[in-house]
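User: For my dataset I need records formatted as: sequence, then structure tokens, nothing else. Please produce one.
Assistant:
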Amino acid sequence: MEASSTPRIKICCISSVEEAHAAIMAGASALGLVSSMPSGPGVISEPLIAEIAASVPPPIGTFLLTCGQDARDIIAQQRRCRTNTVQLCDRLTTGSYAELRDAMPGVSLVQVIHVTGEESLAEALSVAPHVDALLLDSGNQSLAVKELGGTGRVHDWAISRRIREQVRVPVFLAGGLRPENVGEAIRQVGPFGLDLCSGVRTEGRLDTAKLARFFTQLRA
């Protein structure tokens, strides 16, 4: 897909209705709502996810971040949370993308690819035809306790660029993005969207000053 010079912004680890509205007012196009994970920040309860999703105006993407690997479990979780997008943070092992689509009409599917090396390119190419977008992050599924996001680490953007160039779906870039490196991220990767978490937070809370600085750098 073609490079973007003005990527959309997704703010992840939203923890309250107030944070959701602050992110939207700052310019976010999508919000990440983190359900139970083996590790990482930002986990909130499913009832709170549903409450936040219900408070968000329709043009904004509400992403349910799930570590589920069974299609039936993911379908049930989305029905409890009522988000308009499901972000699959791990590989689907039981069921299929087709099963997810049939059961959740109108719900977008975003597959996370944790960029660990050259093998990530092949994984992205195999998955892309079945989903609406890819999200390239810096986790590691091979650890005893899986890292499925929120690491604050930058991965190899050269691989991310190659993925973006070779797939036909939009690509979000995540992992260690901050006001100081957003310009370089856009130049090197050209993603459709940027996914922020730790880079716009202070002691776990959304920092409106950091958020404003990020959008200032983005527009510059």
